[in-house]
Amino acid sequence: MSFILCMTVFGVLLMLLALTSSYLRWLPVTTSAVCLAFGAGIGPWGLDLVQLDIRDARHWLERLTEVAVLFSLFNTGIKLRLPLHRKAWHSAYLLAVPVMLATIAGVSLAAHYLLDVPWAISLLLGAMLSPTDPVLAGLVQVNNAQDFDRVRFGLSGEAGLNDGTAFPFVIFALLFVSHGVSDFAWVQGWLLKNVLWGVPVGLLLGYGLGRGVGHLMIYLRIKNADSTSSPNDFLALALIAIAYVAAEGLGAFGFLSVFAAGLGLRQAEVRTTQSEVPSEHVAKPVLGHMDSDPQAATVTRHEELSESQLAAGVMMGDMLAFGSLVERAMEVLLITLLGAAIALYWDWRAIVLGLALFCVIRPLSVWLLISRHLLTRPQKALVGWFGIRGIGTLYYLCYALSHGLPMDSVQTTISLTLSVVALSILLHGISIQPLLERYERSMKTDSRDPASDLAE
């Protein structure tokens, strides 16, 4: 596809989304579902303007999906304001580890026994399809840093954590594919390097960086009296890059480090401002940062704000706005490319695997492993259904293609993975808004405040 054609296609798509946004928000469909349909329309199933072969594009597509996931993980991290020991986090921890492990096992069993896929490839499919997606799950995640709804908070924490906690099992599956059933001497090395070292070091390193940089930046903004004159979007880019590179350099997982950096940055804001209200709710980004008047950056009376609230509010608002813009742009681009590629790899067997994952494996895992003291039955049902697969899975697919996946397994792996992701985007895309609206109406009629339990 030529550069001119590429610009034309995405220009038309973005214009359509901009012009129809006021209509789309009233329809039971997400932007991702629209982009998938648009991609299919310009691909071999439609106008045949774009033909994307994942095998040929695996290297640049791996980097593109990686960047999209990194921005989304960071953005998710800075929205989660509660301390890590609070009750709100318990369901996120359970979803990110026990439920994910149960999902890997369930998908592996389903792929092997229902579709006759070899055990090694079944395990790889389970690992790649187990994490929920932080990019496409925006509608079901927290709306802001003061949203403590138990469903949204749990799904946000899960999406932030399990894109990193799934990585060791993708590596395990690839090692199993290469070594076979006759040699398991590598398991001890995998356990030490990828689980006992890679996961905790990534989390601790990222959290420490985010916390330290957050305190430093707020201090410098106050000291130099430039809270409203210096832009902060470069700070988001720098922190994402440094957290990722530092973790990878130490043999830890960059995804976890970047998510934890967002969490650490948010906790720096909490400790500095000493306020129950997120600072970006009382201060706002200054458009273009051309006006250094502090009153231009407040949504309340300027004299009622502390210096730390003003500095932290503008900083957090800048980074949230910048991260959200990049995240949405990457979502549109990547899902459109997926729609264009799906015609070459559509596999009808994915309907069986997808329905098993969405309707049996995920809901059953949530039902059995999440305590009723954390989530009510209706909330368990919602969390069980809202296990959206997307760009994180595409990254793991490209990673597997670039790291030793046998040629005789490539077609099956790509076809089943892309087809299940496309099914997830369609099924979840048309059900998210109606189900969320029904849930929110039920919560309004409930006399008990859901945030009160989470603040414990």
How would the blueprint of this fold be written?
Elements: H1 3-24, H2 31-42, H3 54-77, H4 88-115, H5 119-129, H6 150-165, H7 167-179, H8 187-223, H9 233-249, H10 254-273, H11 307-345, H12 349-369, H13 377-385, H14 391-402, H15 407-445, H16 450-454
| Fraction in helix | over 70%
Give the beta-strand count: 0
Largest sheet: none
Structural class: mainly alpha
Q: Number of helix segments?
A: 16
Number of structurally distinct domains:
1
Output the CATH class name. Answer: Mainly Alpha
Reported by name, the CATH topology is: Na+/H+ antiporter like fold
- SSE arrangement, N to C: HHHHHHHHHHHHHHHH
Strand content: under 5%
> Measured on Cα atoms, how large is the radius of gyration?
22 Å
- Quaternary status: single chain
First-to-last CA distance: 54 Å
Mean pLDDT: 87
What shape does the CA trace take?
globular
CATH-derived architecture: Up-down Bundle
Detailed description of the structure:
The chain has 456 residues and is mainly α. It has one domain: Na+/H+ antiporter like fold (Up-down Bundle), CATH 1.20.1530. Helices cover 71% and strands 0% of the residues. The protein contains 16 helices and no strands. The longest helix has 39 residues. The chain starts with a helix and ends with a helix.
Write a brief structural summary.
By secondary structure, this protein is mostly helical. 71% of the residues lie in helices and 0% in strands. The model is unreliable at 449-455 (pLDDT under 50).
Summary tags:
Na+/H+ antiporter like fold, disordered C terminus, globular, 456 residues, 16 helices, mainly alpha
